[in-house]
Design goal:
The structure is a homohexamer of 317-residue chains. Chain A has 317 residues and is α/β, with parallel strands linked by helices. Chain A is built from 11 helices and 16 strands. Chains B and C meet through helix 2 of B and helix 2 of C.
Chain lengths: 317, 317, 317, 317, 317, 317
């Protein structure tokens, strides 16, 4: 019996150090990165018994992915494939007004051909929770079908499902995303979404509270979590709205903030915490993530508790 | 027919990484750097057909300079020399109150012996614009004479001339600069100068508008551009004053900001833009430059347009 | 009028430093690499007026390729594309018995859709020589057709053609290669091939001299060059066999040795040298290449002459 | 049911890059290293279901150890301790005549206080094999006692025991080692030792065959494996001597060669191979190890098979 | 005759670059660090004839310490020991809310066994000033006794004594510190302490002025210097209170700020400056320190003067 | 009373890492390097009380030189100058046939204007030995005169003089060197020279023994030491020839081998050793030097003794 199963693509992230431009870079930093494994690592670090699965090429590049994920303590259960490539993304970090730019090179990744029957669906059936994000069905027609099957498998087995909308404009249009994602929502218990995606993709408007209520009403989600950027987050659950401000943070690497939030939110829910404490746990973990290089929240429960208790500040010696 | 010819020294810039002190550094980053090539690269990146020329030692160090400049797409037309060294400068980056310190090691560089007849003056005659800066005549008596000859050659051939005052206190005194530079001004159509140099070197006083007007009146410049640091820039042209605020930027490396501004200003003027749009183009490129390591604005027209349109912000994925 | 046009894919090469394994690497060195641009750079460095063309994605990654090639002094004439990715390859360097391993990630590169009519075939018609290799037709059906059209275009215009068999077992089988390549041979004047590929792919057997004669006889090549690894090279031309031993070298990076050889061979032929001196020039350049990191022979004519004259040895100070 | 349990200290290894001296180093490479985890990783990579355990400080440094080991796919079962430090060793690599120098800084490591009852001895009882080395009892009086208890526990439960003598002159004298180690031998089924340690520590003399026979006879080992450096290895088993020459290798990092040999030897024995094939498997893995930075044989079964089949040579592309 | 002798442990500081976590670091930066040598270097750089002494292991690691300290111009007079290890500390830098974390690994360092009679106490007797900090007696019972003997030796010889309370919560409790330190105070002329340590360790309360007066009154210090963080510092001397605000600074590495302050304060006092100018000198040096990587204020008198005169700002070229 | 004073230029050495070409390097390693300081450090490390002096620019670059030299334990006594630059040299390391190439950038270094009366000649008079090399008079006319004055000063005061011919073809012709150097020889007691320089510069021919005898006879040297590369060295002293073979070594950086030899030779002579033991000491230190990055022999007496005793081999742990 596992606490949490996540499914989705993990890429290799290639980034020039020290704000160099890709066009002139002579070296690249290499890290594993993907929404679903980011969430699974964050949850694992915080006490959840999680497993991540996907389809990876049977090559040093595919093993590079599991090697890093396992170094964080996560259990991985990949399907190894002789077909398909290892997805990558290039990221050029920069301050404003240049901004940080992402170039996906993930077409034809091994995972894009993953059918549900290849994946360890038994693990999903035996798990308390299942998580994937809106990136997964965006990657291929096969994965669109697979995502629906996995969500159905979970709900059919009584496994709770959490889903982060995670809209990526470089993968599909808002219209395409809306059509696909709303079909999946009947199998989703907990929806997480940035408020701007709720507006832009789902077409829901109004105050953030109104949006949360409308989402919950329309698609009958048990819980809706809206992330509000610097404003923190807000949840609708059992008809009630709970707000959580963001913790102050000095940002070293912003990528993966949302995944850290979701991973910690789920960890706290799985550990029996209520929505309010899960939001707080998520916000504290997200604040820590932003101080850490890479997509992944390499944190400890003590550190998260320290943020919540407003300790951990300055120099500890 | 070329759009723009620039002439001036390009050095090798040696800087310790990560705010280390020169006194204790064990490695140095190496980049090509020089006002006139900085301007030429910025203009080239933004669509200008530019060429840079200078006199370089016929050695791996001289080739190191052209190699980097050509990697940015710039055409170089160096004169290769068996005499003279490759100029360098050491730069130690630091926050306040240490401040960033430059040590020039450029005496006896090959370029300091460059006479006009050695240089490809035909390219200047056939070009629409010619650019050099006040650094060039400061480097040697020969270059002082060469600078005057080149400016005369340009105006004689109907090539427009742009000149950045670029006062460097480590090269000469304000008095020496004033005497030399004001002799050149009769051949200059567009003068660019920091407002503090107009005061300190040229002895012009008053409000920034008054200074611009006074400069234009005294030396009959077609256009005067005053750079005002965080206040942006201001131009006097056809009797009118145009102001351009600076775009907000997160500074990674401030060196070369002024050259990025001038290169983009000229690119836009050459492309037919008016002074106002050239100022805006210059300011946007300058803001981008500050996010980029090194002296040089490795930018694209889309990025500059994005700054002007206030796009390009946050993380694009 | 250009001396040499080359067409073929240039990839980004990603390699872990210091013999690290890909599976555990945290950084990768990044360089441009491709047989046809390797050849073009080597020729350019040695005085040839060469141009390389291909189809590249209109992205920082595509510009990364031209940026590096132009830094070596090569003229590039890419077709920029909104479709297709930037091909890459990963290379893990290791001594024996681990050996050096290459993982291609070049499927669906922009170049794989390049049709002859998109490419600057006019440059080929106006050039003295045209070069491509057996890698190009192996990359896609479109490129197989394109390769034939380009070779036909060249011979039709009186442009001499050189072709390196360059068999890659990770791209196709010997049988598939044989079928495709032998169809192209009627348009080829100079064939270069490793002797083992002549045996393995073309099925020619016997002593190396016999193989060279048999290749020349069967496909009526003007010149056949066999590379023999540590044994050097051998050419058949005008019915005569010329042998060239390899120069001794301390290998730092063996990749691109053959391309350095071909680039220098062609440079010397273009400069009017006979086959014997071209072989010698090729062998000397190949020896230098092996001391240089990356795929590309960043050399000077003086250095190549120094190897031939047995100078350049020890420490020069 | 596990195939193999290993127990012993894993240190953090700190080494200056590029042959720098420790006295002048400004950065250090950081890796996990320890005979027993080296053996366990090598076995795991080759298909064995292995687990490593030890006592580690409950700190980022202790987690640094398990993080790296798990990245190689090894299961770790550490006891976390609030007492004791993380052992380290500094290693300065150099060619002859400087030689490679090790400075241990492992006194008072958490593991030195590990008592058998703290460790997961149940895992040993349920395992097919147990492995530790002569380093473990050398580290403290407590560990001397613990080692004996663990070996006794294993043999009592029918778990086979393998033991590498691994004499370290910086930890104890030959006399002290002899006294302690020979007391343990009654619980050891498979003894591995360098021939020079058999002579120097155990005082056995003669030809290598004679030494192996004498060791087997005196202490009734089921199997004795003598490692002979460049001469390969030799085993005595069932009264027979089997010899295995070393595979040729280009050494990048020699540390951990013996552990790679043992890990692969055990993996092959566990998989049902006979002593001869286990020796061959060990020798091939040892040869691969020497091409890999760090103490650990990050290899695949295919690579080991490739060495045995004399493939994997040159550049694979 | 020396101006200043300092005694105390200097460690090797190991820090992951670029905000990486220790748990996942693959390289560490290495620097010498210790309150008493930090103070001695700062003073030396500013014209004081200082010497630092301690007990170090006779190993490359011990020599690594003196090598770096001497590179800054400091005279070192270590006692070399065959016993005891080189103390280290690991530091993980991070922004809030992660915060910067220190892991000491200094138990059983060679210095912890240093008895006064081993150390060059003659140098203390012949020096104008002696300095140590509250870290020294916290390291071992031996060092507690040694510290008292050294302070007694100094005052007995007419050498002035300065003492920085430097409370470290990872070494001892406030109560233990109070008991030990207050016993030493009868031999202390100048006490420096952070105001929070005065409160937390010494139990003195009230306004900062009241605290300074109370400290001076209770233990009859000639001078009391309270450091107030961002508020600067305050001294009580001859019954008068002098305040010094902090200079603005952009912090690159905050470690060693207090030691830079003390070193410069003492340098100015030794040079004949009054308390007010010594405070100013200390504050300016502390501001510079924060821009410099590592524990140590590698500064020049000109730079400190520049901060006081509000020069040194921006880019100097 | 000092054992040894050396005078000569110390440069900053700039080298691309990992066999990169200067033309394409993006970072450079930075080290202090100069024959006379190399000799002084080697001697210091081996127990000699040595001091090095020269004229350096009063800048971070000049301090970079003394900082590094003092880190090795050497006493430096520089004259600080406001005129003249810091000499540098660029070195590109490569295997054959590329070979290692040096580009000097040392013209107009501060030292080139050093007159004897500026330098601490009192230290020479009070020293047992004085050393400089043939590089010093090659650097400027002033230094030619200064070298003669210093040598005269030494012999006048009874200080023994050692001189390494150190011919540098990039500084002067053999003829110019011969004319200048032979004028100095009347003040030289111990001449060291590579045998090829004796032939090429001094025009002495014959077997190596004949050359040594001829040198000793012609210029009445007390001792002549000929270095013979891989053949080791040979001395003529008191009419006797002593030979010393080279110790085997794995070369990491060959620069400074001769200086290491001379420094150790002098250290052993100063310590009372005879010529044979000094040659052996020199050869052992030279062998160690070749394993160490940089120009300087950072060695210990134990290590040198270990080479002589044929210990120190393999891995010590």
């Amino acid at each position: 019996m596992t606490d949490l199963v996540t499914v989705g693509e993990t890429m290799l992230r290639l980034s020039p150090p020290d704000n160099e431009r890709l066009e002139t870079a002579t070296e690249l930093e290499l890290r594993a990165a993907g929404a679903e494994s980011n969430v699974a690592v964050a949850a694992t670090r915080l006490g959840t018994d999680a497993v991540w699965t996907s389809k990876l090429p049977d090559s040093p590049l595919g093993r590079r992915v599991t090697s890093e994920l396992e170094s964080y303590g996560l259990e991985t259960a990949p399907v190894w494939s002789d077909e398909g490539r290892q997805g990558t993304y290039y990221i050029e970090f920069a301050g404003e007004p240049r901004g940080t730019d992402v170039i996906y090179d993930r077409a034809n990744a091994a995972v894009t051909s993953a059918r549900a029957e290849e994946l360890p669906t038994g693990r999903i059936r035996e798990s308390e929770w299942f998580y994937t994000s809106g990136i997964t069905p965006a990657l291929s027609d096969t994965l669109e079908e697979t995502t629906e099957t996995l969500l159905w498998t979970a709900t059919d087995a009584g496994t709770k499902t959490a889903f982060d909308l995670n809209y990526r404009s470089k993968l599909w249009s808002p219209e395409a995303a809306r059509e696909t994602l709303t079909d999946l929502f009947e199998h989703v218990d907990v929806l997480v979404t940035a408020v701007r995606d709720a507006e832009n993709v789902l077409g829901v408007e109004g105050s953030d509270e109104a949006i949360a209520r409308e989402l919950a009403r329309t698609w009958e989600f048990e819980t809706v979590v809206l992330t509000l950027g610097a404003e923190g987050a807000l949840a609708h659950h059992d008809g009630e709205i709970t707000r959580q401000p963001a913790f102050e943070t000095e940002t070293h690497d912003p990528i993966g903030t949302g995944d850290a939030f979701v991973g910690a939110f789920l960890a706290e829910r799985i550990a029996g915490g209520d929505v309010a404490s899960a939001l707080e746990y998520g916000a504290a973990t997200a604040a820590l993530k932003r101080t850490i290089p890479g997509d992944i929240a390499i944190v400890t429960p003590d550190e998260v508790a320290g943020v919540i208790d407003a300790e951990g500040s300055g120099i500890s010696r």
